[in-house]
Fold this protein.
Amino acid sequence: MAGNWLLAWRNIWRQPRRTVLTMLAIAFGAALLVFSIGLQLGQYDLMIQNAVRLYQGLFQVQQQGYHDDAKIRTSIPGIELLARKLRQQSGLDSIAARANGFALISSAKRTYGSLVVGVQPEYEKYVSTLPGVIKQGRYLSSDNAHELVIGESLARNMKIKPGDEITLMGSGRDGSIAASIIPVVGIYASGSRELDRQLVQMPLAAFQDIFSMQDHGHAIVIYHEDVKQQSQLHAVFKDLIADQQQLVVLSWDEIQPGVKQMIELDYSSGWLMYIVLVAVIVFSILNTFLMSVLERTREFGIMLALGYTPYNIGRLVMQEAFILTSIALIAGTLIGLGVNYYFYIYGLTFSGMDEIARMYNMPAVIRPQISPDSVLIGPGIIFLFTLLAALYPASRIRKLEPVEAMNHI
Amino acid sequence: MIHTASLLIPLAWRNLWRNRRRTFVILFAISLGVWAMIFTSAFLRGMSQQILDDTIYNLTGHIQIHAKQYLDDPVIDHRFSLIDDALFDSLNHPAIKQISARVRVPAVVASEQDSTGVTLFGIDPENEGDISFLQSSIIAGRYLDTAADPGVVIGKKLAERLETGLGKRIVVMSQDKNNEIVDRGVRIVGIFDSQMDGLESSCIFMGLQTSESLLKIKNDVSEVAIILHDSAQLEMITRQLQQENPHLDIQSWKQLEPLALVITELYDDFHIVWHLIVFLAMGFGIVNTLLMAVFERTREFGLFQSLGMKPGFILAQVWIESIFLIVLGLVLGNLTGWLSVLATGDGIDVSAFAQGMEMVNLSNVIPFVIIQDDLLLANLVVIILGMLTSLYPAWHASRLVPADAITRV
């Protein structure tokens, strides 16, 4: 048995040039796949991280139906108590209650429709980046202060600065008119055009007061940095609200299906490219295997005459393919990993990346993901298909007739 | 020289068909690579062209004209008059296919149930035809008849949100030219269902004159969108319009939609990188197979040399064989690439990712598009790099020492 492996090893090096070229092809393919899959997954991580961290959270507890049709009436009673209960029972601090409404806000010159959100300033900083990106003035000071912060674009459009007052007009939960005059204390710049253009935040208590909400709110936002624990955490929070039938726990991919779908779309179009590439690589390897078997007709004839069975020879060819592919894949994977590691440390960016980054609200530098998945998927696929490819030439040996084969030139 | 060519070319051609299996194996490898290049670049091209079309033909147009501060602050104050001889003259240009003047201001719409902020478009329905999706995406009721049509057309999502529908009345509120709040009850005469949710939930369309009378801005508009006959003239016409109308802000879609521009440029760059990657992947296989073919024919080359053929001729002969192979492979690859693109018909339906597609400005069907430049690029890459790489096996064949070669088994 060991003799066979040794024979296979020596056979490989009888034609060093061919072996090296074949190995280069395999290694090139492996390195390329490791690099591009790592980059792709790294980019998705970044998109999810940013989508989750900016504002929407990893989960939201909402009244059933609120997500599909955000009506001010579809609210959760006693929301602050519920948020406190979830914080205590889950041990997570990054849980904050919010209430959402729509209002016309007017400065001296301009009127705009905007989303008004009541937040708990103390906890909001754990679930969203907004409190940390105040460009002018300050963030909301306490739970019941009568003040608000406003996005950069909206502030520019309304021509207001911290210290100015705006008039707010909308309809309250009970259908009454919600109106107030509130000072602006801060202006944030989140980098997301959508938020900066239309979102206004005020303390939850003030919101409840203006919009006649009593102790109601619309969503409890839960943030956790590790998206991979999504399913475990989801189960935990589902249990915690199990006593309230009408509440649901929505995950980030339900709250922001666009991000999820974009990733899936990119993933599938990426796979189209990978499949095509792997096909090209595998066929060029198949060619090499096939030619090298055809070339050795004479040799195989002699082996058959010496008493080797076609099965033995077929196995020998497979062993050669196995050794060759393994060495090449290891080399290729290491090269790919090295490239990924380099970009993981220094980051990868290219021209135009800035624009795209702003659109999706992510940093303009991508770092490849380095994980068992990202490293092993590509080489694994090549390994599988090259061995499959080697089966075909190996199977041709069965057709050889010893005498004819020996006389073959 | 002519004599040599007339000898070598038929010789090379016949050599190809002496060992059919080897020829077919190499041909298959080359045409697979060429197919991969053409098929994937048609996919990429389809994506980027779809992004462009969806950008330009969804209200943007090739060029837009606004008042100076409008883009920064899209409100009624920043409007311009259409009764302007200079503007009229410069728009009367043979390269311009269509001109659409619009009022485009922020507004609030309210039904009995709910209210929300939207963008109010006042359009002249006859001139919007090619520029916007609107006319073709009406699913209930009708499109606007004239610029003085008293009704409005709203999106399906917005109608759901406001719990209103065809034939019902909604109130539109905005600021008139004196910054007074004006409102008017209007009847919904049509509902549209665009592939872009954003447009569906945030825009309402009314007749241009109706909106002008609501806002008290007779003959003033916020925006003029222009479609050109030939997009190659984009830069030239934009510059000309800018020079003739220095008081207005005139920009091409490239400035208005930098993201679409960046994405399409990235795709263009990626074409080249992708072709090189595919070529590398197949290049190893081709060199390997050609090289093996040369080794297999060691005896033959030795014989040629001892019969007096110069090494240079052997090189030329093997090289011509490779070139035949490459050209044949290109023909097959182009053919199969073209056929497989034909087989995809109108394109692939990706409506499962609708919201993700919208984030990158794409509608739900991605067509496969073959354009001349991409074909040329793929073919050039294969011919030039193929000829260069096949020089190596040819050079090898010419370096054999006759006496060794002839005795080698």
